[in-house]
Automatic annotation (TrEMBL):
The lineage of its organism: Eukaryota, Fungi, Dikarya, Ascomycota, Pezizomycotina. It comes from the Eukaryota. Belongs to the histidine acid phosphatase family. InterPro entries: His_Pase_clade-2, His_PPase_superfam, Histidine_acid_phosphatase. The keyword Membrane applies. Residues 1-18 form the signal peptide. This is Phosphoglycerate mutase-like protein. The chain crosses the membrane at residues 416-449. GO terms for molecular function: phosphatase activity. Keywords: Membrane, Signal, Transmembrane, Transmembrane helix. Pfam families: His_Phos_2.
């Protein structure tokens, strides 16, 4: 029955999907359901564990299993090949545990027995549980315990840009217009927040506490106040609040998390191309600020206004690197294409991931060189670039600032930016990848904006690919 359902699903795919070869995929995933930020330590709930585990199972059936609907060419279906997969998450309990739960669904236990020389048969523990390393990025540690997600970026430029939202006319207007609305919610949250804390200024934290309560609490103080209309308004105000902090078209420095993600995607696909398909699957867990900032940078609101809102728990962005079958048995980089998809909420529940056009265009996929060119316009690929944009001069940036000044002069003279300087024929070189590795060690998973505490009690290379 399972095989029949797979064949029916494949038959239902558009010809362009059924008749193509996927060489690599990049998944950026949000954590599952968790306890509220305002009551640390925040932890992944049983519901959250189930959500990300279910998502892992879905992506197994999409990319990994031997009869996957969009099988990544050459990807080991049952016993993980560590050289083919890379997984990362910040030093954060909720995000790391989400990654491990996801991987249990992606590569379930494999029957593993060994017979020793003396004839003893050893059975692997936990039914053959597969150990898949999750690379830890240090910056943004404990982000899910922080009421303000944009805490501790370490990037002065990003912090300044995000905080400027609180001096904008848009913010001032919403703060004034919603004063009575938030005051009406004080009876619901006054066991956690002081009265003067419950304003639009803390719109996300107030939403987060109430949202968790509506999922888990059997009783909520003054629950009669939480009508469907009130909950909807609470959510949309949180959307506006966090979008304002994560992205601004006229000052995109606050979108640093999205800039770093763009560089990591370029690096991952570059590895896939230059290794001729040996590197196949990249999975990164991160917070919603990265989703929002990338949405803005990639001009996804042009495809749907929903991209200005908060992604639900266990949401995922997908980037698929593929080539139409028949183009070449071992396609060159210029023969490859990239498709972007988004799933709001748990993959495997409800509708499948949906493709959207990137960069304000209309096509559901773009050529790989164009993808590289577009992402390179805002990707932060080197430590020098990060230090320059952030206007940081201390620590590792003390040395980088001198080199950065020289690079800036060269860029001005030559008319080519640092990000695009490493792109030949619209492809990121291996040197960019090596520079990025150092950058990720320094600032991987950055988030932005200074923390406001709640009251107590509360790239791409040339080459060819082979299947």
């Amino acid at each position: 029955m399972h095989r029949v359902s797979q064949l029916l699903l494949l038959a239902s795919l558009p010809l362009s999907l059924a008749d193509e070869t996927v060489y690599g995929a990049y998944i950026f995933h949000r954590h599952g359901d968790r306890t509220p930020k305002s009551l640390p330590p925040t932890r992944l709930t049983s519901l959250g564990y189930t959500q990300v585990y279910t998502a892992g199972q879905y992506f197994r059936e999409r990319y990994v299993s031997s009869n996957a609907t969009l099988k990544v060419a050459g990807l080991e279906p049952d016993v993980v090949n560590q050289a083919q997969i890379a997984v990362s998450a910040p030093l954060d309990t909720v995000l790391e545990n989400s990654a491990y739960a996801f991987l249990q669904g992606l590569y379930p236990p494999s029957e593993s027995k060994e017979t020793l020389r003396n004839g003893t048969v050893v059975q692997a523990p936990m039914g053959g549980y597969q150990l898949i390393p999750v690379t830890e990025v240090s910056a943004g540690a404990g982000s899910e315990d922080n009421p303000w997600l944009q805490d501790a970026s370490g990037c002065l430029g990003a912090t300044t840009s995000s905080n400027s939202y609180f001096f904008s006319a848009e913010y001032a207007g919403k703060l004034k217009q919603t004063k009575e609305f938030y005051s009406s919610l004080v009876p619901v949250v006054n066991d956690t927040f002081a009265k003067d804390y419950v304003t639009f200024k803390n719109g996300y934290t107030v939403f987060d506490l109430i949202n968790v309560a509506t999922i888990h609490n059997t009783s909520i103080p003054s629950a009669n106040l939480l009508t469907p209309q009130t909950l909807y308004q609470l959510r949309t105000l949180a959307d506006a609040h966090e979008w304002g902090l994560a992205y601004n078209a006229s000052d995109n420095m606050r979108a640093m998390p999205g800039m770093l993600l763009a560089a990591e995607i370029l690096s991952a696909f570059n590895s896939t191309v230059i290794s001729k398909g040996k590197s196949k699957l990249n999975i990164q867990f991160g917070a919603y600020a990265t989703f929002l900032s990338f949405f803005g940078l990639a001009d996804l609101p042009a495809a749907s206004v929903d991209f200005t809102g908060l992604p639900d728990y266990a949401s995922a962005m997908l980037f698929e690197l593929f080539a139409p079958n028949g183009s070449s048995p071992s396609p060159q980089a210029e023969d490859l294409r990239v498709r972007f998809l988004f799933k709001n909420g748990t993959a495997g529940e409800g509708a499948p991931p949906v493709a959207f056009p990137l960069f304000g265009g209309s096509e559901m996929d773009v050529s790989y060189p164009v993808f590289v060119e577009k992402l390179s316009k805002f990707a932060v690929t080197t430590t020098e670039d990060w230090c320059s944009k952030c206007r940081n001069t201390a620590g590792v940036c003390a040395g980088a600032s001198v080199a950065g000044t020289k690079s800036a002069k060269q860029d001005k003279k030559g008319g080519i930016s640092a990000a695009i300087g490493g792109v030949i024929g619209a492809m990121v070189t291996l040197a960019v990848v090596l520079g990025l590795l150092a950058l990720v060690m320094l600032v991987g998973g950055l988030t932005v904006v200074k923390k406001h505490k709640a009251p107590k009690g509360v790239q791409a290379g040339s080459g060819e690919l082979k299947a």
